[in-house]
């Protein structure tokens, strides 16, 4: 399993702790230091079954002065490019397992990721 991790985020630290406690083998990706590519984002979005705006931290966009495209499928590519350019906008943590992914912001999602790995 891979965790897209921001060590300054409490939810991200909690998810990593839960992975460790469960004895799950995982790799940490500090996605702010090693941003995902457009292709990686597309893969994760497909696994999540979500649109790019569903994993965007919109409040952070305002703080960064980033203008967000319309939440419309015709703007999908623009959203993904924006997330690749500004990884701080990506919800965290994202847990990526064999064929699946979850946004691990709550205990249930983290448990689902651990169970599916």
Automatic annotation (TrEMBL):
Coiled coil: none annotated. Pfam families: ArsC. Belongs to the ArsC family. This is Arsenate reductase. It comes from Nocardioides caeni.
